[in-house]
Amino acid sequence: MEASSSNRSYFCKNCSQPLIIHSSLSQIDGSTLSELSGNLDLDGHIATTGELSQTGDSEYDDNSSGLEEHQSASNSFLIIGDSMLETKSHDLAIREMFDMGHDMRITSKLFDILSDKSIVDHPLCEDCADSLIDKMDQKLKTLEEECKVYRECLGKLEKKTKNDNPESNLEHLQQRVIQLQLEEKRLIEELTKVEAQKKKFDEKIQAQEAEINVLLEEKDKFKREHNYLKKTLFEIDDERLNVENSKKYITRHLDILRKTNVFNATFHIWYSGHFGTINGFRLGRLPNHPVDWTEINAAWGQTTLLLFALARKINLTFERYRLVPYGNHSFIETLEDKPKELPLYGSGGFRYLLNNKFDQAMIAFLDCMSQVVAEIERVDKSWYCPYRMDKEKIEDTKRNNCYSIRIQYNSEEEWTKALKYMLTNLKWILTWVARPETSERCDSSVSTTK
């Protein structure tokens, strides 16, 4: 039985070491367990020793009855061989298994009872049990010392109670009660006064809260007005800044316009190789550069318009001629009894070369330019024209060259050179008229005339 109990492994609940269960635990029966557990019903957990033995006997009887049936089924004689020996060993193994199950259940139930009845889980090994006993002994000594101290204090209190006079204690307590009643009365009077003061303070607080509410409403109203005025101020400030920026922009733009020369911006006189140009239109023709007559006519239209505008700027009225700017069909009108038109445009060809009206128009244009030059020299003695103009000729005094502005009986090179010099003189006239002091002088003269 001891060997069968050792087949079940138990471990210490404290140190988890394997335990060897003593064989005496298997000898405890169900009644002993019931007494240990306080008459606890063992049904459903373990079976009693009688039940287990009955169960084992019944099973053994079943096996034996089966053996008898086997014997009756044979031919009236019994043969004992290896099969019978195996059946007997099997029955013994079954019997030992049931005995081992009974021991295991008894042992497990015993450990459960011990665990429920104490604060320590079971089973425990011998070392852990000895350690637990030592701790319990120390705790017992501590409790005995505390009990001893409590007994001494209780004895002192009993002696003190016996020594005191009960009557003096009663008088003392009555006096104490009277003092407490007087103190209570005084505190009640003070409480009444404090409540009256509290009521007055509550009324004052309510009045002040009402005043605070009025002030808060006025504060909100003031904030709204302040925000509105601040917003208005920001808008006015933004408008002022916009006006100042606009003023700065307009002033800067006005300065640019004052410094801008309308004539220079409108009429750009320059050169392109051997050709003089006005606003990009070439004036003249060369054998190796045959300029189209539409471009030449456009250049003459721009030139006529420029001289016409310059004359008006300096308040000059031409003698003998009147300029009529008309685009690429501009012309000059003579101021005679019988006025005639001199065209400042051409179309080329042989018939055109035989017609000298174009030459007369160019000579008349030089005459008008000479009148403008004479007027400028009269006003400004220090000014001079780079190329001298005399009737139909333009003279380069530095190189002693003279070129005719006629196209008949003249080479295209000389005609182109004369037109280039004419545009140069016109550029000088434009520069003088475009000066600020010239503009102020002309404006003052116009106002005086009016």
Automatic annotation (TrEMBL):
Q: Which InterPro entries match?
A: Atg6/Beclin, Atg6/Beclin_C_sf, Atg6/beclin_CC, Atg6_BARA
Name all Atg6/beclin coiled-coil domain ranges: 123-254
Q: Provide a GO biological process annotation.
A: mitophagy
GO CC terms: phagophore assembly site; phosphatidylinositol 3-kinase complex, class III, type I; phosphatidylinositol 3-kinase complex, class III, type II
The family this protein is said to belong to? Belongs to the beclin family.
Q: What is the name listed in the Swiss-Prot or TrEMBL entry for this protein?
A: Beclin-1
Q: Name one Pfam family in it.
A: APG6_N
Q: Which GO terms describe its molecular function?
A: phosphatidylinositol 3-kinase binding; protein-macromolecule adaptor activity
Q: In which domain of life is the source organism classified?
A: Eukaryota
- What Gene3D superfamilies does the record point to? 6.10.250.3110, Autophagy protein 6/Beclin 1
Coiled-coil positions: 126-225
Chain ranges of the Atg6 BARA domain = 257-434
| Keyword tags | Coiled coil
